[in-house]
Write a structure and sequence with these properties.
7-stranded antiparallel sheet, alpha+beta, globular
Length: 807
């Protein structure tokens, strides 16, 4: 009963949340989470997830089942039943969340369990095919402050924070029996999510916007004409098209002549036949009439229509310019399944008989940016999106990267004329595309809701549902600073997937665990004589300073690549910056270290240091202590403290300082001090997983970039020259090899930067663990080192494959 009550409570809160109760987003799943806490077996966890997916679908998406039943004429009740039956396919993230959460319960603490489960939720939403690409974060849209963080992580980023907040509330409730003090910490962590979102939103809205050019004034024609098919059957196709055009022409005349619109936008399939490729003489006459009206208006028109070629027909947007005619088509990329298309493997006569309403449109090939050439001489690059396109953040991001300054969205939401929740959700999803890219948006639909949306997602002008309306709106245009979403893409789901992969790798029994238990374990052995660098103070300072400059140079270059788009596509500039900022100071540091390199061994109670003919002997009885450098400057090493209390004037830089100190103690030198022994575990944690080949510079910075460069360069050759050896056939072997060398160099730079960032993250994480959880510091370092291998040698190739598959 308690489990059923928790599921029912979460369903009720979800229904209230999506209908404007945005504050409930931080608690709506807490009752279900408490029900999951009571599920002790995999079977009960699956049952709880299934029940919640059905309850959530009924509470939030009942309108879709009813609309589906009405559209397909199977009945509203049957449509709703089909939707609930398919709830696990409609909302699969509940299963991913619950199963990962259950798997982590016995392995990890509450914090890591919550993070893993939330990651599973957003990863499932990103990787699994879903109809609306809906996410919990959309429910925060009514709050102007909280929704602004979508430019960092999109709707998925908001969802991740909402899930963590819900976990905090559930944990606080679970601990309440132990007193309010026990519940205070998880509740405070839960409260951190809305505070972070509100703080970022206030910062984003208070920032001074970049200077804007003259606003774009658009006329949005919501003709309120629906059910073309029904009207065609009763009036005939010619009469329907005639009526449609007459109403659009009249409203467009009002927009241009009386309201002084710079351009006119009609809704999806407003012209319900092919444009530019007429199927009949009557169609050709309608085309000429549209061109005549555009020429008379003197402003560009963008409208929904059909396009066709040898592959079939497309749901398209036509760009028509006065005096120039048709500029081109954008073809809708995301088609609605089983109404606009059927997967080829499922299509056939039997299915067509069963689902007679199914269309056979072809999908477009991604985002395109078109110029709106206005009467005052301006040329505004705009990104067209059609209906379901605007639920895909990647299309809007691609358009922003192509230089769009505004989004033009056309839709037909007449499905939801009676169930307006569907039309409202669609408009919210479209508004998030503006927040993520900071591009203003003009959105027109057949019968509502049409709106002008600013870069913060606010609706500046809009329409009601089910009435003819003309929206005239001015939106300022600017080239916004690229947001993190534009720079990184829809990254949260992929990052969550990578996190889960690393967590799974950590759980595998394939890594040595001996390095995480000591300082009492025996010290690592070292081969003697050992390679050392005998550094006087000035040489250590010089080499350390040069290496510090080189590392800062790497960070600076990474920041430059992140914020300068032109630098990312200029390989020669990258090589010059890389050489100046990193290679030169690193090479100088290596020269200093090379100048003082030597060998060390123990002989007859002495530490013997030799370099060529030079030889230094230091009696072990004169050495009071061997102290590991706290700061590896310019590398790990040892300082020798003499019996007199003075430090020896030379420092010993070497790869394994702890092992060398242990070997010295075994040869009759001083025993390792307690601080050195404490460092032993950390040193073993850092070096116990060092692989002879994976850590070799040749493997890491030469062979790995080569593996990455070959497919990327091959794709470039196919795109630019038509074949894998196109540049060779055109310009010869020297040009071909030079081009490949540049690609290889660019990938080498990328791998070096990636490795530097990973190393910084590993060391920062290890340091944080040593400060907060000293007993777990060694195990944490082990996990971080393993994660670094996975991210470098697996993450980079996977990322490249994803990028190549998206082209």
């Amino acid at each position: 009963m308690l489990i059923a009550a928790g599921i029912l409570a979460s369903a009720v809160l979800s229904a209230m949340y999506v209908r404007g109760g945005w504050l409930l987003g931080f608690v709506l799943l807490a009752p279900w989470l408490r029900a999951l806490d009571g599920s002790r077996t995999w079977t009960s966890t699956l049952a709880c997830a299934y029940a919640m997916s059905v309850a959530f679908t009924a509470a939030v998406f009942a309108w879709f089942g009813i609309a589906f039943g009405r559209y397909t004429q199977i009945g509203e009740a049957t449509g709703l039943a089909v939707l609930l039956l398919c709830a696990p396919l409609f909302q699969p993230q509940f299963f991913a969340f619950a199963l990962v959460r259950h798997a982590c319960t016995s392995r990890y603490g509450l914090a890591l369990r919550a993070l893993a489960a939330a990651a599973a939720w957003v990863a499932a939403e990103r990787l699994l095919p879903r109809l609306f690409n809906d996410t919990l974060g959309y429910g925060l849209y009514p709050s102007p402050l909280l929704r602004q963080a979508a430019d960092v992580g999109g709707g998925a980023g908001l969802t991740l924070l909402l899930l963590l907040a819900n976990e905090g509330v559930a944990a606080a409730h679970a601990r309440w029996a132990g007193g309010w003090r026990a519940a205070l910490r998880p509740f405070a962590l839960a409260a951190l999510a809305p505070l972070l979102l509100a703080g970022y939103g206030a910062f984003a809205l208070s920032g001074s916007p970049a200077s804007a050019a003259k606003p774009l004034r658009m006329g949005l024609v919501q003709a309120n004409m629906v059910d073309y098919e029904g009207q065609r059957q009763s009036k005939g196709a010619h009469a329907v098209v005639r009526e449609v055009l007459d109403r659009h022409f009249a409203m467009s005349y009002d927009a241009v002549v009386r309201q002084r619109a710079d351009a006119v936008l009609w809704s999806e399939t407003a012209y319900p036949t092919t444009f530019g490729r007429p199927k009949s003489e009557a169609g050709a006459e309608f085309d000429r009439e549209i061109l005549a009206n555009v020429n008379a208006a003197g402003v560009p028109f963008v409208f929904g229509t059909y396009d066709r070629d040898g592959a079939g027909e497309y749901n398209a947007a036509a760009f028509v310019q006065p005096g120039a005619g048709l500029l081109g088509f954008y073809r809708k990329t995301r088609l609605f399944p089983f109404t606009e298309y059927v997967p080829a493997w499922l299509d056939g006569e039997a299915l067509r008989r069963l689902l007679p309403w199914t269309g056979n449109w072809q999908p477009g090939n991604g985002a395109r940016v078109f110029p709106l050439r206005l009467a005052d001489g301006r040329e505004v690059p705009v990104l067209p999106l059609i209906c379901l396109d605007d639920v895909d953040a990647r299309l809007a991001i691609d358009g922003a990267r192509l230089g769009a300054q505004a989004i033009l969205t056309m839709s037909n939401d007449s499905w939801f004329s009676k169930e307006r929740e569907g039309a409202q959700l669609h408009q919210v999803a479209a508004a998030f595309r503006s927040i993520e890219t900071r591009l203003p948006q003009f959105r027109v639909t057949t019968n509502g809701y049409s709106a002008a949306i600013d870069a913060g997602g606010a609706i500046l002008a809009g329409t009601a549902m089910g009435e003819p309306a003309l929206v005239i709106a001015d939106l300022p245009l600017r080239r916004p600073v690229p947001t993190l979403m534009v720079r990184w893409g829809d990254w949260v789901g992929l990052a969550a997937s990578a996190f889960l992969l690393l967590l799974a790798i950590r759980s595998m029994p394939i890594w040595p665990r001996h390095a995480g238990q000591l300082p009492d374990a025996p010290p690592p052995a070292i081969a003697l004589p050992a390679s050392v660098v005998l550094l006087p103070p000035f040489a250590r300072f010089a080499a350390g300073s040069l290496r510090t400059v080189a590392r800062i140079g790497l960070l600076g270059m990474g920041a430059a690549l992140l914020f300068d788009d032109s630098l990312r596509i200029n390989t020669l500039a990258q090589i010059r910056i890389f050489a100046a900022c990193f290679l030169v100071p690193e090479a100088a540091a290596l020269c200093v270290l090379f100048a003082f390199r030597g060998r060390a061994e123990f002989s007859h109670g002495h530490l013997v240091l030799s370099r060529g003919a030079q030889r230094i002997e230091l009696a072990l009885q004169d050495i009071a202590a061997a102290e590991v450098w706290r700061l590896p400057f310019p590398s790990p090493g040892l300082a020798l403290r003499l019996a007199s209390g003075q430090r020896w004037r030379y420092g010993l830089a070497l790869a394994e300082p702890v092992a060398f100190a242990a070997a010295m103690a075994g040869a009759g030198g001083p025993s390792m001090p307690q601080k050195t022994r404490e460092l032993q575990g950390a040193a073993q944690g850092g070096t116990g997983l060092r692989h002879r080949w994976l850590d070799h510079p040749l493997s890491k910075f030469v062979l790995l970039p080569l593996v990455l460069a070959i497919p990327a360069f091959s794709l470039h050759q196919h795109i630019a020259y038509g074949s894998a050896f196109g540049e060779y056939y055109t310009f010869g072997l020297k040009a071909y090899l030079s081009a490949f060398a540049l690609w290889w160099a660019a990938w080498s730079i990328g791998v070096v930067l990636s490795a530097a960032l990973l190393r910084a993250a590993i060391e920062a994480g290890a340091l944080l663990a040593a400060l907060l959880r000293p007993k777990q510091a060694i195990g944490t370092r082990l996990w971080l080192e393993r994660s670094g291998y996975a991210m470098l040698y697996l993450g980079l190739p996977v990322w490249l494959l994803i990028k190549l598959s998206g082209l």
